[in-house]
Amino acid sequence: MKQPFFNIIGLAFSLLFCIASPAKAGLITTEFSEVVNNQGTVDIYFSRDSGETIQGFSLYFSETVFADLNIISSPLDWDRIVLQPDALLGAGLFDSFNPNGLSSGVARIAFTYLSQLPLPALNYDFYDADFAVIESGTATNVIRSVPESASLMLLFMGLIALGLRARQQQEAV
């Protein structure tokens, strides 16, 4: 009778581990401030998993949507540069590099917005010390992509309650 209960708990822990441990080397999320008179800022949140080392990343700003990119702040250990979007050269970019590997951090970029709302998601590339692209993706416009601890705790408590309920029903039979 106790074996199914422990199987359910083991499955729940496995699911929680998979949810909390995405298989990406790093993650970029963005949070745009309200655009006032076509001027705004974007906060770029970079976090790295404990797996693969990332020496740099580039975040691309479409030449048809953004202009006047300017770094307001970024971590001191990042070598950073902004290249302006241009109709002839293509998308602008914010690039960060550290030969020792990048750690987590937040950068803020000011911009002029040339299009209609809503603000678009930004594309990125992660690269290694040889500047070979490790991974490409699209940054999501959210504050956090990892479930908060309160949400995980609620899920865990619900699974325990289901397991206890199933155990009581089995003992009643």
From TrEMBL:
Signal peptide interval: 1-25
Keyword Signal: yes
UniProt KW keywords: Signal
Annotated protein name in UniProt: PEP-CTERM sorting domain-containing protein
